[in-house]
Write a structure and sequence with these properties.
Blueprint: H1 3-14, E1 36-40, H2 44-52, E2 59-64, H3 68-78, E3 84-85, H4 88-95, E4 101-104, H5 111-119, E5 124-128, H6 135-148, E6 152-155, H7 162-172, E7 179-186, H8 215-219, H9 245-254, H10 256-261, E8 269-275, E9 287-293, E10 302-308, E11 318-321, E12 324-326, E13 334-338, E14 342-346, E15 349-355, H11 357-365, H12 379-388, H13 398-417, E16 420-424, E17 429-430, H14 452-456
Parallel strand pairs: 1-2, 1-4, 2-3, 4-5, 5-6, 7-10
Antiparallel strand pairs: 7-13, 8-9, 8-16, 9-10, 11-12, 13-14, 14-15, 16-17
Length: about 450
């Protein structure tokens, strides 16, 4: 049996059974217990996360990046001499039998193609947030997870922390009472900073293609266009064709606590109440979004407010109870407003902060029982242990991650078109603006038509 096939077989038990150790051909731990890991997207600090958080202890067997210059410093510091590719499709075709798992750290618009191409070959996947660039892609990756039985994880790292578990346990224990409203915000984007562009025209002024950049591969499934330094490196998040703005950048972190605690399924409606002006196809410097979630068997309906960019907190984000005037007080990025008190957390979920003070004191003195298993070593170690059969399925597996990302992407669509979206989650369709369903499943260039077979099957 091929080594990768053995790992896939073993993983089938990992989701329900924690095995004591992983070894091939020997009792106990062995050299063969190391996984063969490849990287798709090897440049910048985002690729340093998996290397520094557990993957460097495994066998790093291949690297892929469309920009050789952008990843050169990482590869030098990692002292790797392993094969390098600029096209992940070539890497997977040539080396898939030698790769057990892959970490995908590309711009949002290429997450789906790279992730599905690996899953189709039985390779375990860790994909950075947001999981995909449109809702159809998210739902297709859930189908792929069910078919190919690989271990999956999305990179919203707070989901592996103790803090979010404390928040969920506090809510489930009734500490803050019934929750009907949530406030979440982020002060960005800085449209003149290193990560967000503010182009003078749209499309932005073209530039000569920088040395070492395979621009057509960077575009991937997106429509062809001239290279512009406003796109790459780093600033692609400002353009809806490639990124998802502040919601895509931070929503998968900041919404994680309410989505998990309140068991939020996709909303029935999302409305953009306000957005700053922007060029067509470019994110605004600020917006206000309102989500409407229906009641379920455990709770009543929930309204979630999202704010990005500078806000006049005297007029928006008002809470006015439990010693908090508005959503930005006490430095919290998210507040769950309950009938007995408030629970706040940070941009990456993080440890809960409870108000009023007497409620916080009581919670600190007598915290609820730890009903949710803890994760040791962070999200990459969680994922690697599951692949080896040493631990359960990761918490931000694609079933959970796709739902969370779908919620985020519905807000992105409402923001992009400054409108109210009414969502039929069962059908996966926008009902009040049917023309916007073209963005629920975006068109792709020839040669990038991944996922169609899963739906036909």
């Amino acid at each position: 049996m091929q080594r990768r096939t053995f790992l896939r077989t073993l993983t089938g038990a990992a989701a329900s059974t924690a095995l004591p150790s992983f070894a091939i051909g020997k009792p106990g731990k062995s050299a063969n217990s190391k996984l063969n890991i490849a990287f798709i997207g090897s440049g910048g600090w985002i690729a340093q996360q998996p290397y520094n958080q557990g993957c460097s202890e495994e066998n790093l067997v291949a690297f892929c990046d469309v920009d050789r210059e952008h990843c050169a410093e990482n590869l030098k510091s990692w002292r790797t001499t392993q094969p390098f590719f600029d096209d992940f499709r070539v890497m997977l075709d040539k080396m898939h039998k030698e790769i057990d798992a892959v970490v995908i750290s590309t711009p949002d618009h290429t997450h789906f193609a790279a992730t599905l191409a690996a899953m189709e070959r039985g390779i375990h996947v860790f994909t950075q947030k947001p999981l995909a660039h449109n809702i159809w892609q998210c739902r297709t990756l859930v189908k792929a997870k069910e078919r190919y039985k690989v271990v999956t994880q999305m990179g919203n790292q707070g989901h592996a922390g103790d803090g979010i578990r404390q928040s969920v346990e506090a809510y489930r224990a009734g500490v803050i009472g019934e929750v009907s409203e949530v406030f979440a915000h982020n002060s960005g984007p800085d449209m003149g900073g290193p990560h967000f562009a503010n182009p003078s025209t749209m499309p932005p002024p073209s530039s000569p293609i920088k040395e070492g950049l395979a621009w057509d591969l960077w575009l991937g499934p997106a429509a062809k266009r001239e290279f512009a330094r406003d796109y790459h490196p780093l600033r692609w998040r400002s353009f809806y064709d490639f990124g998802s703005g502040m919601l895509g950048d931070w929503g998968c972190h900041t919404f994680d606590t309410p989505v998990w605690a309140l068991d939020l399924d996709p909303p029935e409606a999302v409305e953009c109440l306000e957005r700053k002006p922007s060029l067509e196809g470019v994110i605004p410097a600020g917006s206000r979004i309102k989500y409407h979630f229906p009641a379920n068997a455990k709770r009543g309906p929930v309204v979630l407010h999202w704010f990005d960019g500078p806000q006049d907190w005297s007029k928006v984000g008002r809470i006015d109870k439990f010693s908090v005037g508005h959503a930005a007080e006490h430095g919290r990025a998210c507040w769950l407003v309950g009938s007995k008190g408030l629970l706040g957390c940070g941009t990456h979920a993080g440890a809960p902060f409870l108000l009023p003070e007497d409620l916080r004191g009581k919670w600190s003195a007598e915290p609820p029982a730890q009903t949710i298993p803890r994760v040791a070593g962070g999200p990459f170690r969680e994922w690697l242990r599951a692949i080896k059969g040493e631990g359960p399925e990761p918490g931000s597996n694609f079933t959970y991650a796709a739902k969370l990302t779908e919620i985020v992407l519905l807000g992105v669509l409402a923001q992009r078109f400054h409108t109210r979206i009414e969502w039929d989650a069962k059908a996966g369709r926008i009902t009040n603006h049917p023309e916007l369903n073209a963005f629920v499943k975006e068109p792709v260039r020839a040669g990038w038509e991944y996922g169609e077979e899963l739906w036909r099957g």
